[in-house]
Amino acid sequence: MPMKALAAAIGRHGFLLRGGFHPLPADGVPGDPGTLVMIGNAGPAMWEAFRAACPEPFTPNPLDAWTREVLGGIARDLGATPLFSFDGPPYLPFQRWAMRGDAVFPSPIGPLIHPTYGLWHAYRAALLFAGRIPLPAPAAAASPCAC
Ligand code: B12
Question: In the predicted model, is pLDDT for residue 87 greater than 90?
Fold first, then answer.
């Protein structure tokens, strides 16, 4: 699955590709996948898609339910296994995985900081692919906090 096609499929719902990596045992990724791809959001696009989809407001955790439906469906179509940042406890180490696949850095207040998005970004899911998919190297960037 080329990353461009995945970016287009999730982009229709306002989600962004947030990097990926080829897991090693020390990453603690369940199973033995060849590739992990992070999916998240920044800016208004995901919120606009969520509002337009108008999920039932009185169900528990409507954003999580909508994320599971949308990204779970895309994962199924692609033969990938979805993992969600909100499933737990125990929670999966999304922040650790994010630092493996993208130029994000610990900030003094905890959340990871991104050179473009600042603190205003989040992770919603990781897709596990059995095969080893070629991935672009994370952009070389320094932490905005390192000055
Ligand atoms: C539980 C949880 C909370 C709980 C924390 C309770 C607790 N004391 O543990 C509460 C509800 C308080 C919370 C609050 C917030 N959270 Co929260 N939370 C989570 C959740 C679901 C699980 C965290 C976890 O336990 N992971 C399990 C461990 C094993 O994974 P890990 O990646 O290795 O986690 C490590 C890092 O978090 C690391 N860590 C934490 N701080 C720092 C700092 C440095 C310098 C380093 C190196 C590491 C580090 O220590 C953890 C343990 O090893 C994650 C989603 C996820 N699955 O990770 C979101 C998550 C971490 N939260 C997030 C956010 C945005 C927030 C809030 C800003 C929300 C808000 N608007 O208020 C606040 C910020 C609080 C703060 N100042 O840090 C985002 C962070 C995104 C980002 N930019 O990094 C995440 C990733 C969710 C998402 N959808 O993207 N959260």
Answer: yes
